[in-house]
Design goal:
43% helix; six-stranded parallel β-sheet; alpha/beta
């Protein structure tokens, strides 16, 4: 299967290349606190498009990729938005949030419209390093990535798979047993956390070495596009642990993983995580938090508690609308995600 000449022409069009660079420049100014006429007046808004395909991405990754790119070419007009950043994104969401679980040998299965995984049938502390060079799952991820790059397109960015973070993965692999082990067998937990984080680091390093910086974006890039050479980790499961537990077991690994990238990166939060704000503030590698659902309710705590150079990506919800968030923050240090049709002015 081959990309059509028409799609190739559209996805190499310099107009869309320059449009992306314009918006990345604005986003970079937001992160750096640099002067920007747009940011002086408006809240930064982000709502990208991701290519879609009905083909089997696991058995036909190349064909799936081509169909996604053709879809992006057909929808390219959606990016012509003066008020909202609409990046053009390719994302190969291999096994969803259970991508790394599968690499470690967990039984991952699809049910009720999403991926799930069974816990490992072995005790905490018994993990071994996976052979990434010969791992079938990572091999499939690399295959799709390399095929995308072979198309030599200028416009779409490549979104990484869900590499997540050490805490998310260790809980996926062991379930509640690992939370109990943090009290009863800390050395076993630390053993596995190191193996997991080293593996996540290696996966990031492969992508960082392989994908040009202008093409590389974190997972779910349509909603989480960052300036060049930033990373993203998933902090969902930090809602389950105390600030003391996070500091003892996890924070250093999260900082290390974000530090793979020279500019640090973002943490995704979707629950009740405000107990960690002090630690997040002190983590120099952490440059942004992405909050949605329950986490968004605490936007005032994040805005007041984080550093001046830490940006908040907000996915609005009924309990925390964009309008309410702008009232709380004045629209400063804020990126509103998910609405192509609204623009929000800053509060003076």
């Amino acid at each position: 299967m081959k990309l059509s000449d028409e799609a190739r022409s559209v996805l190499n069009d310099d107009y869309y290349v320059q449009n992306f660079k314009k918006w990345i420049g604005r986003l970079t100014n937001l992160f750096n606190g640099s002067p920007d006429p747009y940011l002086d007046e408006y809240v930064f808004s982000l709502s990208g498009i991701t290519g879609q395909s009905k083909l089997d991405m696991y058995n036909q990754p190349e064909e799936w990729t081509i169909e996604c790119l053709e879809d992006l070419a057909r929808r390219i007009g959606e990016t012509e938005n003066e008020n909202v950043f609409v990046p053009v994104c390719f994302h190969y969401p291999l096994y969803g949030v259970h991508f790394v679980d599968k690499i470690f040998g967990a039984n991952v299965f699809f049910k009720d419209g999403q991926w799930w995984s069974d816990v490992l049938k072995k005790p905490v502390g018994s993990l071994e390093y996976p052979d990434l060079e010969n791992n079938e799952v990572f091999g499939l991820a690399k295959r799709a990535c390399l095929f995308f790059l072979e198309q030599d397109l200028k416009v779409p960015v490549f979104g990484l798979p869900t590499i997540a973070c050490a805490l998310n993965i260790i809980i996926n692999l062991y379930g509640e047993e690992v939370l109990a082990a943090m009290v009863t067998d800390g050395d076993a937990v630390r053993h596995d956390l190191k193996i997991i984080n080293d593996t996540l680091t290696a996966i990031h390093q492969w992508h960082r070495k392989t994908i040009p910086v202008q093409k590389r974006q974190p997972v779910i890039p349509a909603n989480r596009t960052l300036p060049y050479d930033y990373s993203q980790i998933c902090g969902c499961s930090t809602a389950l642990i105390s600030a003391e537990c996070y500091n003892e077991y996890i924070a250093a690994y999260d900082a290390e993983l974000l530090g793979v990238y020279p500019n640090g990166g973002m943490i995704h939060l979707c629950g009740s995580h405000a107990q960690h704000i002090k630690t997040f503030r002190e983590m120099k590698e952490l440059r942004a938090v992405q909050i949605n659902d329950r986490a968004s309710w605490d936007i005032k705590k994040y805005y007041d508690g984080l550093r001046e150079d830490q940006i908040i990506y907000l996915n609005p919800c009924k309990e925390m609308t964009a309008e309410k968030a702008v009232e709380i923050t004045g629209g400063n240090r804020l990126a509103v995600v998910g609405d192509k049709h609204s623009v929000f002015k800053k509060k003076r």
